[in-house]
Amino acid sequence: MPKGTVIRSTGRWIDVLVDSTVIASRIPGRMRLIHGDETQPVAIGDQVTLEILHDDSGIIHEVHQRQNCLFRRAAGRKIGKRQTIVANVDQIWVVQSTCQPDLNVGLIDRLLVACDAQEISVGIIINKSDLASTDLMHTMDGLVDQYGQLGYPVLLTSIEKPDSIDRLRNVLANKVSLLMGPSGVGKSSLLNALESSLNIPVEKISKKTNKGCHTTAHARLYPLSNGGSVADTPGIREFGLLDIEPWELAHFFRDLKPHLQKCHYSACTHDHEPRCGVKDAIEKGEITPSRYNSYLNILYSLHLGDLDTGR
Question: CA–CA separation, 102 vs 139, rounded Å?
Fold first, then answer.
């Protein structure tokens, strides 16, 4: 039976790339039963073995062991289940925009935590730099410095600035990448700028809500002409973390982690405990209040087990 890569999943049908042919495939019911705690047993990027039927469709019989995967707590009617967003990825880029819609630092931090917890290389793209005022760009420059000092690469992009698209093209070359962020930040527009042949549908920002409309209905993996591939995903408004205990969270905040060994309690959550190395570092100005507040917002949501928008 042939092997291939999942490049698109619509729920019922899964497109599998076998050599240069796309096979519309399905998952047998027993596989769904075995993976009952997941919204979908396969994700884009998965390597699978399938049987090709007489009508040229396929049946997936095996999902091969993943090198890595990014997952979240499922939202909506499937809340409580695990939703795998991508598998076997080299890097993830968290995409935000300077405005229209406004940048959401809290969501950025949640996604950085999720990637670091899975040991997946992660960076930040701040798009629509051409729309930002001088004052807003000053704020963006501060964020670039802040995250850059933590070791996260940050790109300022605009489809109106070809040099920024060239920089993005270079960091995506010969790698399997994922772009993820809220609707309207310009993920699909960036991909169209990278590869004009894609013609991915895009929509304008809603004037009423100043938020993006969902134009990407399903995650899809696209090949890049200069090598590698990149996945476009539906916009996310919330990202519920899974498999992280409250006392573990600070291990995935790069600016908090160096101070953990100074805490009196090994399971310190850096919230209410005395003799806390993190709180001492905040008083000394070694951790910014905004990052600590972001940490606390995520910490409280872990205590509650709730989804959070990242605000």
Answer: 12
Q: How far apart are the first and last CA of the chain?
A: 47
63: Cβ–Cβ under 8 A, 6 or more apart, which residues? 31, 41, 42, 46, 47, 48
Q: Which of 117, 99, 108, 71 is nearest to 310 (CA)?
A: 108
Check residue 29 and give its pLDDT: 84
Write the single-letter amino acid at 238: E
The pair phi, psi for residue 292, each rounded to 5°, is -65, -40
Q: Which ranges in the chain belong to alpha helices (H)?
A: 29-34, 105-117, 134-149, 162-172, 187-194, 277-283, 289-304
Cα(153)–Cα(148) distance, rounded to whole angstroms? 6
Longest CA span, the chain: 69
Express each pLDDT in 233-258 by its tens digit: 888 888 999 999 999 999 999 999 99
Q: State if pTM tops 0.85.
A: yes
Residues paired with residue 125 on neighbouring β-strands, in sequence order = 95, 155
Cβ burial of 232 (10 Å; 0-12, 13-18, 19+) is: buried
Is the N-terminal amide bond of 101 cis, ω within 30° of 0? yes
Question: Under a CB-based contact definition with an 8 Å cutoff, are residues 302 and 249 in contact?
Answer: yes
- Nearest 5°: phi and psi at 231? -100, 135
Neighbouring residues of 270: CB distance < 8 A, sequence distance ≥ 6? 250, 256, 263, 276, 278, 279, 295, 299
Amino acid sitting at position 84: T
Closest CA to 6 of 89, 77, 76, 72: 89
Residues linked to residue 121 through DSSP beta bridges, in sequence order: 91
